Amino acid sequence: MNIQDTRARAQEISKAGSFENALSAKTIAGKVDLTLSEGVVLGLLRQDVRKFLVIFGHGSTDIGNILRIYKEEGAVEIFQCRNEVAMAHAATALSWIYGEIPAVVTSIGPGALQAFAGSLAAASNGIGVYYIFGDETTHGEGINMQQIPGQRQNQFGRLTEIMGNSYTLHTPEALRDAMRHGNNAVYRSNFASPFFLCLPINTQPKVIKEFRLDSLPKRLPKQVVAPADDNCFIDAIALLKKHGKVVIKAGGGTRHQPDLLKSFAESINAPVALSPGSVGVLPDRHPLNMHVGGSKGTISGNYAMENAELVIVMGARAVCQSDCSGTGYLNAKAVININGDIESAAHYNNTVMLCGDIGVIIVRLLEVFKNHRRPEEIEQQAEGWVSSCCKRKSMWQELKSVRCSEHMLYDVAWKQHVLTQPSAIKTADRFTKKINGIRIFDAGDVQANGFQIIEVDHPDQSITESGSSYMGFAVSSLLSNAIADEPRYMVAFTGDGSFMMNPQILVDAVVHGVKAMIIIFDNRRMAAISSLQTDQYNKDFATNDGTQIDYVAMANAFTGVRGFFGGFTFQALEAALEEAHNHKGLSVVHVPVYWGDDPLRDMGAYGRWNVGPWCEDVERLYTEQTI
Question: Is the alpha carbon torsion for 426, 431, 435, 439 positive or negative?
C-alpha cells in the first residue's frame, strides 16, 4: 500500500469539503489502487458518513490506521469511546435526534458482540447506523483469537444478519456491492436499520487494483411512495362513513408528520392514542390527544383504544406495550393501517392497507374525504364518542395532578421522607421545558412514569427508547451532544439501575466536551420489576440491594463533571437543577425517590400485558379478538 497516495487523497477530500466535491473536481484520480480499508472509508464518505465512533483492537488495526490518516488531514471525525454498548447508543442517538448517520468501529470478538448488543436499540426503533466489525481471517489457517467458536464459515455474518442487513467482505472487490447493501439499510425511508459490515482481519489491507471510485454508491435519496390507485382510499373513506367511534393509533412513524396528523384528526374528529415513542405528535393539551395507550398506557388512551370500533393505525407496530399484547382494541370491527412496512400494515384482520409514506397518504386521504360526507347519525355518534373520551382525559389529568403534586413519603431504604418519583419527574420536566432541553428516557420505572407525565407539544422535545427499553441508553446518548453539528441541550432522565449499566459517559463526556445533564432518580432498586413482582406475586425479589452509592462523589471524581445532590425537598431539587444547568459540561443530579406500597409511588398501569400470571387472561382475550 502507498501511504503517500492515501494521504494525498485524504488531503484533497478535506480541501474540497467532501469526497463528492473532490471526485467532481478531479482532484483525486477516478481509478486507483487502494486497500479494502480505505475503500470502506471512501464508500462511507460518499454516503455522507464522516463521523466514526471507535474502540480499536487487533481486529481493526488496518482500518484504524486509514482512519488515523484521514483524521489527521481533516477528512473524517473520530470519537474514541470506552464501552461498545455505550458507543452504539451514542451512535443511535446521533442518527435519531440529529439526523447524522455515523459508523461504529470495533475489533473482533467481545467488542463487536457488545456493539452488536447495543445495536438492538437502533434495530428496534428503525434507526440507521453503520457497524464495522473485525472478523475472522479467510484462509482457514486456524482459529482466530476472539472469533465465534465453531466449524462453520462466516460465524459473525450469520449472527449479525439476525439483527439487520449484514455483509462479510471476504472478497475485497465486492466493496461496491457491500456499500449498496449498507446504503439500502441505513438510508431506507421506512424503518431504517443498522448495517453490519464484517471486515476479515486479513482482507482489510488487501489492495484492490484499478478500482473506480465513482462506482461507489451515493447516499440513497428519500423515497416517497404511496398507493397508485384510489380504490384503497375509497375503501378507507367507506369505513369512516360507517363508523363514528374511531381512534387513531399514532406510532413512532408519525414523529415526522405532527402537523398532518393534527389536521387529519381534526378533520375526521377522532381521538388519538399515542405510543410511548410518539409523545408530542399532538400538543399535550389538544382535546383529541388521549395520551399514551398500551400496557402502561393512560386511563384515557386505553379507553379510546378499547372502545373504538374503527382503528386507524399510523406508523405503529403491534408491539406488546403499544396494543396490550394484542388485546388493546377489544371492540374494533375494522382497521385502516397506514404504514410503510407491508408486514406491519397487514398485522390485523379486516384491514384496509395504505402502504407508503404517511404524509403523502394523509394528504390524499384528506383530499378524498373532502368529497364525502359522513351520515348525520355517524357525525353525532362521533361527537358523543369524542365527548366520552374527553371525560376520561379529564379523569387522567386529575389523577396525574394528584400523583405529581409535591408529595414526600417515608422510605424504608432512605430511612426518611423523600420525594415521590412522579413528583420529582414532574419537577424535572418543568425545568427541562424552561431551558428548552430535550428529554431522553430509556427503561424501567423512570421511562414508564416519564412518558405518562411529561407535557410536550412537539415530538422533538423528547426521545423515549421504547423499542427495546435498553437500560443505559439515556445517559450514553448524551455523547451525541458533543458529536452533532448542531447540538441541543440534552437531559437524561434515568434510574439508578439504568445509570449503573453504562456510566462510561462520565469519561467520554469530559474527553469530547458534552454539555448536558443526567438526573438519577434513585430508589435503590430496579423499581419497574419490583413493582411488577409485587403486582403479580405480592413480593419483590432480587431487584434491590442495600448498597449506598454517593453519585455526587462519583461524578465529582471525574475532572470536568459536576455532581449535585437533589436533596429531599422540592426547593432543593429545583436549586440543584439550576446549578447543574449552569455548569459548562456534564452535570449529574442525584435525587432520592420513594418506593413502597403507597400508590403515590408511580402513575399506575391501565392496560394488559402477556406476562407471568396474567398470561391466561390476556391470551383468552386475544383469542376472542376478530381483528
Answer: negative
**Given this chain, do its domains 3-215 and 231-393 carry the same CATH topology?**
yes
* Secondary element (H or E) of residue 397: helix 376-403
The x, y and z cell numbers of residue 330, run together, are 377489544
- Roughly what angle, to the nearest 10 degrees, separates helices 444-453 and 421-434? 60
- Mean pLDDT is lowest, of 24-28, 225-229, 358-362, 447-451, for 225-229
Helix (H, G, I), strand (E, B) or coil at 167: strand
Fold observed for domain 231-393: Rossmann fold (3.40.50)
The predicted structure's pLDDT at residue 583 = 98
Instruction: Tell me the residue type at 4.
Output: Q
E runs forming strands in 502-622: 516-522, 562-565, 586-592
CATH number of 404-596: 3.40.50.970
Domain boundaries, the chain: 3-215, 231-393, 404-596
Q: Is the pLDDT of residue 150 over 80?
A: no
> Considering only the top CATH level, what class is 3-215?
alpha beta
Give yes or no for residue 313 having a pLDDT over 70.
Answer: yes
CA distance linking residue 123 with residue 457, whole number of Å: 27
Q: Which residue has the cell 381534526?
A: 266
What pLDDT is attached to residue 398? 97
Q: Up-side HSE of residue 336: CA atoms within 13 Å toward CB?
A: 26
* 3-state SS assignment for residue 261: helix
Reading the block at residue 495, the C-alpha cell is 434510574
Cell (9 digits) for 258? 405532527
Which ranges constitute the DSSP H helices of 435-569? Answer: 444-453, 473-477, 480-483, 496-501, 505-512, 527-537, 551-556
Question: Count of H helices and E strands in the chain?
Answer: 25, 22
Q: What confidence score (pLDDT) does residue 147 get?
A: 78
CB 321 within 8 A of CB 296: yes
Q: Which three cell numbers stand for residue 20?
A: 463528492
- Three-state DSSP class for residue 507: helix
Any idea which of 221-230, 301-310, 451-460, 567-576 has the lowest mean pLDDT? 221-230
H or E segment at 25?
Answer: helix 19-25
Q: What is the mean pLDDT of the chain?
A: 95
pLDDT of 338 higher than 90: yes
- Burial of residue 508 (number of CB atoms within 10 Å: 0-12, 13-18, 19+): buried
Secondary structure of residue 469 in the 3-state scheme: coil
